[in-house]
Specification:
seven-stranded mixed sheet, alpha+beta, 180 residues, 6 helices, Aminopeptidase
Length: 180
């Protein structure tokens, strides 16, 4: 239903269009970028993955039936600890939200992390008010590890960040359950 492809400069305009408010940018990227999102910021973002592709994989999400780019996700590796950080998870085509696309995106990136790269752990952070994202991550099998209280500041309002993770053994167990 979807596939992950390398995110490229040709994808910049669409991503910029999707990120249409400061709050949405903050929710999507934390404090990685500033509003409004620009091509220069995105150019710097992808340069890191081109400079050291072993450390970062940045993907566009493509709907296979139409070849339409519908989202974005990335994977940042920590080889010493055999772990990865998933970030910038976005179903950009809002007409597709609530249809399980986010879960499919996560399963694709977890397949890369655990089956191709042979990592031990994958983690992510989600702002405490993003209930839909937390529900999506939990459906895939992520476990809440704890709340980092008031860790992010937007317009003098502080928000907590839920740390969530999945271990390789949990991934393998979830794959076995899907087969039965």
């Amino acid at each position: 239903m979807i596939r992950l492809e390398q995110f490229e400069r040709a994808d910049f305009a669409q991503l910029i269009e999707w990120i249409d408010t400061p709050k949405f940018l903050f929710q999507w990227s934390g404090q990685t970028f500033s509003f409004p999102l620009t091509e220069q910021q995105l150019d710097n973002y992808i340069k890191s993955s081109h400079t050291n592709p072993a450390q970062a994989h940045i993907y566009r999400v493509v709907l296979e039936e139409t070849n339409e780019v519908i989202g974005h996700i990335n994977l940042q590796m920590d080889w010493i600890n055999k772990s990865a950080r998933i970030g910038k998870v976005l179903v950009g085509n809002r007409s597709l939200t609530g249809q399980g696309i986010g879960q499919l995106m996560l399963k694709k990136v977890l397949t890369i992390a655990f089956e191709e790269l042979k990592l031990h752990r994958a983690s992510l952070g989600v702002l405490e008010f993003n209930y839909a994202a937390m529900a999506c991550y939990e459906k895939v099998g992520f476990v809440r590890e704890g709340l980092i209280r008031e860790a992010r500041n937007m317009d003098n309002t502080f928000w907590g960040v839920w740390e969530m993770s999945m271990l390789e053994k949990e991934w393998l167990e979830s794959k076995e359950r899907e087969l039965t």
